[in-house]
Structure formats: structure tokens, C-alpha cells
Amino acid sequence: MILRIRINRNEENDMKKILMVSAIALALGGCSEYSSRDRAFAGGLIGAGAGAAIGAAATGTGGGALAGGAIGAVSGAVIGAATTPERCYWSKRYRRTICYRD
Length: 102
Description:
Layout: H1 9-29, H2 36-59, H3 62-82, E1 87-91, E2 96-100
Antiparallel strand pairs: 1-2
Helix pairs in contact: 2-3
């Protein structure tokens, strides 16, 4: 048995727009270099949004969303800062790779 769901044209067009914007954002997100401060800020924003959504869904109250957002912001900032890749430069004089964090 095959289930068929009817989707009207407006919903289909909205979904295409969302997918297109998501694909462009994902593609452009990999093109830039971030410092650990920038990554912590972005991680905090993403964590706050995800935490607030999970807190609201789990408790159904504004307080749960607020607590989830706060916990998500802190954990996202910590993870974002901790996952900053090192920048590596080649030193010709000593023939070794030198890496450092911003």
C-alpha cells in the first residue's frame, strides 16, 4: 500500500525556497575562515536556538525554552571555540610546520 500525501503548490514552492537557501548557506559557510571568537559566537547562537526549541518541546513552557536556550548557548559556545582549527604556516629556514591558534 502506497500512501500519497497531497501537497499544494504553495507548500511545494516554500519547501524549494527553504532547501535552496539552506544549500547556499551550507556551501558559503565552508568558504570563510573563523577565529575562535567567531566560532564561539556562532556556536552559541546555534546552541541557543536548538536548546530553546528542545526546551520548549520538552516542557511546553517558556521557562523550559529559556533554560534550554541558556544551556544550549553555553555548550554551543564552548564546543565552537574548542573546535577551531589551527592555522599552519611553513617555515623555510628550519623546514618545519608552525601552527598556532588565534
